[in-house]
Amino acid sequence: MGFANWYDEQVVPRLIRCACSSPAIMALRTKVVPLASGRVFEIGCGGGINQEFYDAPRIDSYCGMDPSAKGLEFARASANQKGWSADIREGTGEAIPYPDASFDCVVCTFTLCSVQDQAGTLAQLRRILKPGGRLFYTEHGRAPDANVLRWQERIEPVWKRLAGGCHLTRPIGDAVAQTGFDVREMGRRYLPKTPRFAGWVEWGEAIRI
Ligand SMILES: C[S@@+](CC[C@H](N)C(=O)[O-])C[C@H]1O[C@@H](n2cnc3c(N)ncnc32)[C@H](O)[C@@H]1O
């Protein structure tokens, strides 16, 4: 295994797990993840950090998908720790192997920044939701301030290489709305104690129209 592969497969999942567990990010998870109910699908479930926030009695089934083998290991360990039955599979958001309208809710946190095809992934998430189904999202992305955005554009090429393909300039709520969701934004802000170029977050609920 070359250095780049080793870095992406072994180091990045650990870095992400650490960075995505900051108190500010954990607080954001509590605003959306516990709202999921029924048949739930989580895209980018690697790391398994969200699992502790699901309200298990409200959930009929939980399926998670992620392309990272190491991330899936962490996710399966979280499922064991929670003691619930979870169907956790390797795969990408661009090609979700479930039939149309399979789920009541989809959860997507800090993942749309990393998928290869954001619009394609959102279209897949919409497809697997039943009509009226709900997508709960918390994502970081394109800042509304021109000076911050300029820095995001400068840093993004290097950042992507170091952070597992993570983009800094992708729109969040607007991208969700453009895919055929009725977006009910719950909040948007810069994260405290985080560099602004990586700290713009938006979270909310989006109903499949
Ligand atoms: C920043 S991490 C966030 C992990 C987790 N969602 C969380 O909130 O802690 C980004 C995740 O997206 C996953 N990912 C990367 N490309 C993906 C793709 N094409 N489809 C689905 N997930 C992908 C990565 O493996 C990683 O687990």
Describe this structure in words.
The protein starts with a helix and ends with a strand. Helices cover 37% and strands 27% of the residues. It has one domain: Vaccinia Virus protein VP39 (Rossmann fold), CATH 3.40.50.150. Strand 2, helix 3 and strand 3 form a beta-alpha-beta unit. With 209 residues, it is an alpha/beta fold. It is built from 7 helices and 7 strands. Bound molecules: S-adenosylmethionine. S-adenosylmethionine binds next to loops.
The whole-angstrom Rg is 16 Å
What is the residue-mean pLDDT, rounded to a whole number? Answer: 95
CATH topology description: Rossmann fold
Into which percentage range does the β-strand content fall?
25-35%
Please identify which CATH superfamily we are dealing with: Vaccinia Virus protein VP39
Largest sheet report = 7 strands, mixed
Under the CATH scheme, the architecture is 3-Layer(aba) Sandwich
Q: What share of the residues lie within helices?
A: 25-40%
Number of domains as seen in the coordinates: 1
CATH class, named Alpha Beta
Small molecules held by this entry: S-adenosylmethionine
Strand order of the largest sheet: 3-2-1-4-5-7-6
What is the overall silhouette?
Answer: globular
What sequence of helices (H) and strands (E) makes up the elements?
A: HHEEHEEHEHHEHE
Number of strands: 7
Assign the structural class, choosing from mainly alpha, mainly beta, alpha/beta, alpha+beta, or little secondary structure.
alpha/beta
Please work out how many helical segments DSSP would assign. 7
Short synopsis of the structure:
The protein has helices at 3-19, 23-32, 69-82, 118-128, 146-162, 173-177, 196-199; strands spanning 38-43, 59-66, 86-90, 103-109, 129-140, 181-190, 200-208. The protein has 209 residues and is α/β, with parallel strands linked by helices.
